[in-house]
Amino acid sequence: MKRSHHASGSGFPLLLAAGIGIVLAAAGLTGFQFWRAEMQAGFERSRAGARVIAQFTDRLVSSQIAIHGAASYLARQSEPDAVGSLSFHRLLASADRSQSPMVLRIQVVGKDAQLLASSRHFPVPSANVGDRTYLEAMRRGQRVFIDRIRLSVTDEDALVISSPFRAHDVDGAIVSALSVPSVRSFLVTVADTSDAAASLMREDGKLLIRMTVSDPVILEPGPWQDAIDDGYEQFRAPAQTDGVERLYTTVRVGTLPLYASFGEPLSSVRAAWLEKMIPIWAFLAAAAGLFLVVGVGALRSARSAYELSLRDQELARTQALAGLSGGGLSVVGGVGSHDEDLEGEQQPPDHAHARRHREGRAEQDDQRDQ
């Protein structure tokens, strides 16, 4: 009986610890599964944002390239001096107004950086736009070039899209200047969460436009480059610009040397995860606490019952020993009384002889009286 109580008492804490361990394991497994789900949802939001930016940018740039092609075709079909004519100016102005305020101006620039036609001015002022990167790209034979510059006349911040322009003796580039603030306002509407990042990046790593007001920067080689080179699009990394860790998706804009990027902040993923997990953890913690309280109470009861059983066994042994000692004294007392009776029955020989003598004298006295 003693070994049985001891075994049950020592096994119960192990059972209690195992129960609490199961609750903790369930909390950890549930947290891991929910974290994976939230990370996947974060990447899905990132992918959706990048695709929206890519579609918008593709339509915007493609429309400008189409205008460039149409203007070049009409100039080739017109008189040799058509590029500087009023009709050509009106053509460019019409295309400009149709996409205002996104489009700041459309102009034709010669290889020598001389301004030849403009959607905003007629007659065209004699101006040299300076050494522009898009002219260098046209000299290299690049079909489409995108950059961010300050316009020479108005000093406006512009995203420029340039294509080759050739008509008669004119050889240069036709350039559309887009408003950077207008493009940025669209990025802001896409990035609807705090610390989200929406941007346009050139293939060589030049970050052209971000949703926050900032100058263009050349990114250092990093996960973004691996994503572009390997084509896996998605990665998790801290931003080089602000250090915020995000889940990024980088999508190519059509066939252009341009990429749309959207970053979902990891903090929002973590907040959504905690919002789901805190009630679950609270429930599991309450269950573990209840299990612990009930288990400790049961353990104490088992120990109390075990200790009470030990006391009962000890008391029973004590009573048994006391009863055995009382039975031995009774036997001894009985033997003593028996001896006293024997002593009373066994009389000495002298007493018996005196009695017989008294009896003989009494008989003689009776005979004399007769």
Q: What does this entry look like structurally?
A:
The chain is of the alpha+beta class and 370 residues long. Helices cover 58% and strands 20% of the residues. Helix 1 (2-77) runs antiparallel to helix 6.
User: How many distinct helices?
Assistant: 7
What is the molecular shape? rod-shaped
Mean pLDDT: 82
SSE series: HHEEHEEEHEEEHEEEHH
Percent strand: 15-25%
Low-confidence stretches: 1-8, 328-346
Report the major sheet.
6 strands, antiparallel
Distance between the termini: 92 Å
Spatial strand sequence of the major β-sheet: 8-7-6-11-10-9
Rg over alpha carbons? 55 Å
Question: SSE layout and pairings?
Answer:
Blueprint lengths: L1 H76 L8 H13 L4 E8 L4 E4 L14 H7 L5 E6 L6 E11 L2 E10 H11 L6 E6 L3 E5 L6 E2 L4 H8 L3 E5 L6 E8 L5 E8 H80 L3 H21 L1
Antiparallel strand pairs: 1-2, 1-5, 3-4, 4-5, 6-7, 6-11, 7-8, 9-10, 10-11
Helix pairs in contact: 1-6
Task: Give a brief rundown of this model.
The protein has 370 residues and is α+β, with helices and mostly antiparallel strands.
Task: Name some characteristics of this structure.
370 residues; alpha+beta; six-stranded antiparallel beta sheet; five-stranded antiparallel beta sheet; 58% helix
